[in-house]
């Protein structure tokens, strides 16, 4: 895997916690920081891309009215309750 060096500023408390974590897991601070940044970036990109997809769906008219979703959910719940009551 290719990598690059980055310099970041973190609060002293975070740096201390990272040191404790590194010691407790027998991993380097660099490894743990890279893993944390990677997880954060992946999660945030997934959120941003989901929002962008949602906005594209709205622009394309691929939407369902809230009232319709609620009505369908209520129908499913009522059906499940009836099936449970028959047991």
Automatic annotation (TrEMBL):
SUPFAM superfamilies: Ribbon-helix-helix (SSF47598)
Signal peptide bounds: none
PANTHER family (UniProt xref): PTHR40688, RIBBON-HELIX-HELIX PROTEIN COPG DOMAIN-CONTAINING PROTEIN
Descriptive protein name: CopG family transcriptional regulator
Organism: Blastomonas fulva
